[in-house]
Amino acid sequence: MGQGEIIDATGWSKSKVSRVLSMMEEEGLIEKTQIGRKNTVTIGGRELQQTIQTDSQLIENRIR
User: Fold this and answer.
1) Which residues, in sequence order, are CB contacts of 36 under 8 Å at separation 6+?
2) Structurally, how many domains does the chain consist of?
3) pLDDT digits (tens, 9 = 90+) for 23-38
4) What is the domain extent for residue 55?
5) Cβ-proximal residues to 42 (8 Å cutoff; 6+ apart), any chain
């Protein structure tokens, strides 16, 4: 998931998202990869969007 998508999804400012992601990266929670002028956020080698979808499916399956 790109950093811009996180900005759109949260409604936070660019600087706030950047600060939060940098702190998360320092703590080893995520990895940011710069591709050109864009940052892609990954968790455990998976793009954030994939992680969200997978986790949502797991939660949904547990509820059933």
Assistant:
1) none
2) 1
3) 889 988 888 888 888 8
4) 3-63
5) 30, 31, 32, 33, 48
